Amino acid sequence: MQPHFRYLIIIGSLIIYSGLQHVKAQNYLKDSVISIPMVSARVSSHLPGADLAKRFGVSFAVGPAFTWKTDNNWVWEAGFDYIFGNNVKIKDSIFRLIQTSHDFIIDGNGTPADVSTQERGYFFYARTGKLIPFKKPNPNSGLLMMAGGGFLIHKIAISVLENTAPQLRGDYKRGYDRLTAGPSLTQFIGYQHLSNSRKYNFFVGLEIQEAFTHSLRDYDFDRMAPDKQKRVDLLIGLKAGWILPIYGRAPKEYYYY
User: Fold this and answer.
1) What's the pTM?
2) Containing H/E element for 113?
3) Is the pLDDT at 46 greater than 80, yes or no?
4) Would you tell me how many other CB atoms lie within 10 Å of the CB of residue 83?
5) I need a labelling partner for 145 at 20 to 30 A (CA). Which of 125, 176, 219, 248 fits?
């Protein structure tokens, strides 16, 4: 047999073998649940409840998270949210002792200070749960249910234009900011989608937080007393995120339809 015929036979055999292995892999993996580490960028909006509703209105949050989905569709994640909002319901009452009868705070120049207040906070959390797959697009997409715990911190961020009001500088400002923190429970139920094309990976769902908080300040100037209240702060709202799965090959290599 001529050498070039041998080469052709060898090359042809390798091509056929490779093709059979590829088809075999597709058939094996098209319905498989695989282990996938993921990172995501998240946004959310929440309504406050219980004690938190007396202090703030609607809030928003952004933050990253790392998630690991196992080949049994158990899900583990850890994340961080930066919380912000503009609706501070008690902004008039906390400054009542340093305001004029016309609700102005007079600055060091003898003119009304430009004072603004916002909600600011952080939420650190870890959750675990289960993904219940739908038939399509693949067994790694479906209903996602999670629960866990975390730590919530929130306060009233006070800013004065050009920092002209000595009543609201340094330690004086801390006497009005209501810095509050405590452990939290958290739950999530929603939909997770990992597309076969790897282009559209996202989740969306309902999130609830129940935090058991207390004041971190020794003294509230407007109340002229320490705040020793044990609080229950609730947040309920929608959370959505864009997911970046970290796997070596595109999903369509795993799921072949």
Assistant:
1) 0.82
2) none
3) yes
4) 21
5) 248
Q: Choose among 43, 30, 39: nearest CA to 83.
A: 43
| pLDDT for the residue 1 | 53
Phi, psi dihedrals of residue 85, rounded to the nearest 5°: -170, 165
Name the region of 18 (left: φ>0; alpha: ψ -120 to 50; beta: rest).
alpha
Within 8 A by CB and 6+ apart from 8, the residues are none
CB 200 within 8 A of CB 193: yes
- Write out the two tokens for 29: 């993996």
**Could you tell me the two tokens for 191?**
């939909």
DSSP E strands in the chain: the ranges are 36-50, 59-69, 74-85, 115-133, 142-160, 180-194, 201-215, 231-245
Token code pair at residue 176: 């009005």
Radius of gyration of the chain (CA): 27
**Cα gap 126→123, rounded to integer Å:** 10
Q: Give, as one character, the DSSP assignment of residue 226.
A: -
Tokens of 125: 């959390």
Answer for the pair 179, 135: CB distance below 8 angstroms, yes or no: no
Instruction: Quote the tokens at residue 202.
Output: 């996202």
pLDDT at 20: 42
pLDDT digits (tens, 9 = 90+) for 60-87: 999 999 999 998 999 999 999 999 999 9
What is the distance between the alpha carbons of residues 23 and 67, in angstroms, rounded to a whole number?
A: 30
- Angle at CA 193, nearest 5°, toward 190 and 198? 155
**Is residue 59 scored above 90 in pLDDT?**
yes
Q: Which two tokens stand for residue 127?
A: 């959750």
